[in-house]
Amino acid sequence: MPLAPILKRPPVLSLIPSSGVQLIDLGFVADRSSGVETNWGFYDKPGDAGPPIRVDLSDENAQTTYEVDLKKLVETFGNAWMPLPMLREEQGGDYFHGPTNWARVCLRKLPEPDDNGFDHRIIVAFDTELLPQRASEAYLAPSEADARRGAVFSICADEKALNWFVQENWVAGWCREAIRDMVTREESRRRRNAGPASDEQIAERLEGPKEDVARYKALIYLLADLDLLPKIRMIDRFTDPRPTPIDVDLVLDVGNSRTCGMLIETQPDEVGTDITQAVKVQLRDLSDPTQIYSDPFESRIEFNRASFGKDDISLTSGRATAFAWPTVARIGPEARRLAGYRRGSEGATGMSSPKRYLWDEDPRRDGWRFNNAAVHGEHAPAATGVAFTTLVNDAGQPLHKVPAHVPAHDEQRFPSFRALYARSNLLSFALTEIFLQTLVMMNSAAHRLRRRNADLPRRLRRIIMTMPTALPLAERQILRRQAEAARDLVYLCLGQATVEMDTESGAQTLKVAEGVHLPEIKIEWDEASATQAVYLYSQIAMAYSGDARAFFGRSRLPINRGAAGLDDEFRLATLDIGGGTTDLVVTSYAVQGKGANVTLFPTQMFREGMSLAGDDIAYQIIRDHVLQPIVKALDEAGLGERADYLAHTLFGGDRADMDVEDQLYRQQFAVHVAMPAALRLIGEYENWDLMSGVIDADGIRLGDLFGEDDRASQAVIAHVNEEARRHGADGFDLAGVTLPVHFRAIDLSVRSVVLEMLQAFAEIVYRARADILILSGRPSRMPAVNAVLAESMALPPHRIVPLHSFRVGSWYPFRDYAATISDPKTTAAVGAMLCLLGEGRLRNFNFRSDNLKPKSTARFFGKLDRDNRLRADDVYYSGLNLEDEDYELPEEPFEFRGPMTLGFRQFDADWWPGTRLYSLDYASPEIAEKLNPRTPLQVTLKRNQRRDNPEIVDAFTIDRIEDARGASIGKNQLRLRLQTIDNQDGYWLDTGILLNQ
């Protein structure tokens, strides 16, 4: 697991006010040779009602003695957030009474020492919101006045001041609840009690009535003795002249499977931008704060309330919003781990990727629930009740984005309380968490101390997001809308923006606080085009020192040299294979200028995308190379022909007798067993050399893929084993199943998925007379991809460049030890950064990325068959030009006889794959029963254009409907809705259905 790096301790650590909850990471070794004290003694004097004090253990007058060692501290406070007395220092070495509720600490014992040899971690959290200090009120947090005068705060182990601190009712209550939690855990392990421990159980467990406070004081003494925590001061952002923040750009590539992000700072004294200083976006695991993730992370989302301790007790201190993490969803590896804690009966708690469901704007019928393993009972709480959910309605739409014409009493105007969030809106939920983590990270001490101008605050200037190359026009606009909503919601959650309403029109607008900059959202570059920028920058700026003509002349295809119209341009093709889509772009580059002082002008010649990619390959690998060995093992365990029946029972489609727990285990098997196994097989296959003569590798035992603490996988394995035993299998153990690694067989499985698609794209590359074809996306590492393209003879093999083995150089932020890209997923984000900086901010690379304007690829529209083919007889509209605002659909009706899928293709060829866009169906079962006898209905569509309202996407809508006799039917009797995947109920990673045919 990626542990957070240890803070390099400065004498005084500066924090940025209003930068969210900031965490710092410390570590130590607990052994006799380390010099760390591991034993403390406390006693109570008879009749003394005050808190315990530290004394010599040999004091014979002690009436009640508490002996606390490090083991007891970990036992009591391990993994728990506790208040930390970081009090303001006064002259003479004394401490002021406060601030009391702005710092917390978490002690964790590591399962094994980290790279520094530390076996314990200390995570300290600071709530950086400043509060006004009033004489009549408790001093709960640093104030603006503290920042102005440079007040210093430090951990208080002074006996007098610490005694005062622990006498605070809320601190004493917190200590008591920490003991209660400890006893509850012990009782739970003994299976004696499922609920919280009683006062009687606590009294039975403790040596005296004040041992809880004694243990807490020992924790504070430990932290003080370690001398790891620096003094703290808040940076003055209020005294004129105020410091100018450093601008930061966030570049984000959100994929269906994984997401990659990076940050670029612009220093105030820099001319241009040093691209080598770009850093990866880091995600802090909020439920295991020792972990930080910086590599491309899963796009999974899971509802979970982040907590930094006992919020109910903290409230009694007088500070209601202390350490309130405002968002409602976790993402990435944390979301995946949390998904493994589900029981099944709590309801829906998350999904594999909200980006897959941009089209689905319908509210759920049942609400989303928090994923909370500690909740007892059948249903977890609804995913509401945090700052974020007060800003959105039940459908997940931001309240300030509700159209002005919606009445004030309409439920769209009210904050969510049922959590019926539409799947499309969950993308804004995920982006809000990413944006918030980014804001916290870029102002964190750990980040700033590694940069110049460490004491200057950072502000987010721009958010640059890539988009799939062939994303339909309607979904492209939804993506922008969700990104803008996420940005607004972050600043509203942080109190750095407010909503103002026009009393006359009812329109609501966002107003940012003084000194706050609302970042611009830029969604202009597709992933394949951005990838081209990486290749061109490496070659032109790095290898050729800016001389683009020299590179183009050396790399041009021989048949293009001297050809009319081709001698002065360079044609570059990119095949980007992601998790959910595969995209091809062919771009022509012209050069203006002389020598190395030139500008590149790109013109996009062709682009196309297909919804067939890495996840489909993984699905086929699971069916062919994971499930088949499992079925074989079941057969050998005595099930015979019943093995296939059991596999379909466990991993097939829904059945009438299937309960929610069975559905959960099926989904958990897909995510936590089958997918990791498939990825391991693919990883072995990626390193296979077709010419080596090697055809096999050592088999992979399923149990070796999962650790004993992998709760989800172990639960699924136990469930499958029990079902096998119940059906008559003798001695079957899923963990003991070995997956054969037959490279030729895996190669055939991959080819069965991608062969036709790659051959179609190779034909385009050949006809476009591309000079070079570059391959990007993680699945491009698979040998079959390169082999099929080479076999197609679209280009000579040496002109096909897989980016994973391309030596990119030391400038690349995600490079490996050999200065190669290694993971091609990262190229889209880095390329988008180059597109941004290439507009005048990079040396030797002037790139007119503003010429890259994506256009709709819909030319032929009609009814798709089950193979996503648009046959000639099913074409309803041809020659579409949706980029033209004045273009209207022909007034030509088509027949509707029942539910149908509508989509488009780019070429006038039956064999060219189509792209799903809409589903057309009856508005309700009752309407279907009434209208079916009057079919075929004649349906006419029109463009839905609302130029006066940019919130309405360009889309098709029903213009009129007539029955078979020509009688008019209300347009609301049928429903035309966006739907770009073929299963409305969900993707296979969300349903777990692996055997549906």
Structure keywords:
single chain; 997 residues; alpha+beta; 5 domains; 6-stranded mixed beta sheet; 22 helices; ATPase_NBD
Question: How does this structure look, described?
Answer:
- With 997 residues, the protein is of the alpha+beta class.
- It folds into five domains: 12-234, no CATH class; 246-310 and 323-522, no CATH class; 534-611 and 771-791 and 800-851, no CATH class; 614-748, no CATH class; 860-988, no CATH class.
- The chain is 28% helix and 21% strand.
- The protein has 22 helices and 40 strands.
- Strands 12, 13, 14, 17, 21 and 24 form a six-stranded mixed beta sheet that branches.
- A hairpin with a 3-residue loop joins β12 and β13 (258-266).
- α14 (614-639) runs antiparallel to α18 (743-767) and α18 crosses α19 (783-791).
- The longest helix is centred in the last third of the chain and has 27 residues, at 660-686.
- The chain is globular.
Explain the layout of strands and helices.
Elements: E1 12-15, E2 21-28, E3 39-44, E4 53-54, E5 64-69, H1 70-77, E6 81-83, E7 86-88, E8 103-109, E9 120-127, H2 144-149, E10 153-155, H3 159-166, H4 169-189, H5 199-205, H6 211-226, E11 231-234, E12 246-254, E13 258-266, E14 279-280, E15 283-284, E16 292-293, E17 297-298, E18 301-303, H7 311-315, E19 329-331, H8 332-339, E20 350-351, H9 426-442, H10 445-448, E21 458-465, H11 473-493, E22 497-501, E23 508-512, E24 520-522, H12 527-543, H13 548-555, E25 569-577, E26 582-594, E27 597-610, H14 614-639, H15 642-651, H16 660-686, E28 696-701, H17 711-726, E29 738-742, H18 743-767, E30 772-776, H19 783-791, E31 800-802, H20 827-837, E32 860-863, E33 875-878, E34 894-896, E35 900-905, E36 915-922, H21 925-931, E37 937-944, E38 955-962, E39 968-969, E40 974-978, H22 988-991
Parallel strand pairs: 1-11, 12-21, 21-24, 25-30, 30-31
Antiparallel strand pairs: 2-9, 3-4, 3-5, 6-8, 7-10, 8-9, 12-13, 13-14, 13-17, 15-16, 18-19, 18-20, 22-23, 25-26, 26-27, 28-29, 32-33, 32-35, 34-37, 35-36, 36-40, 37-38, 38-39
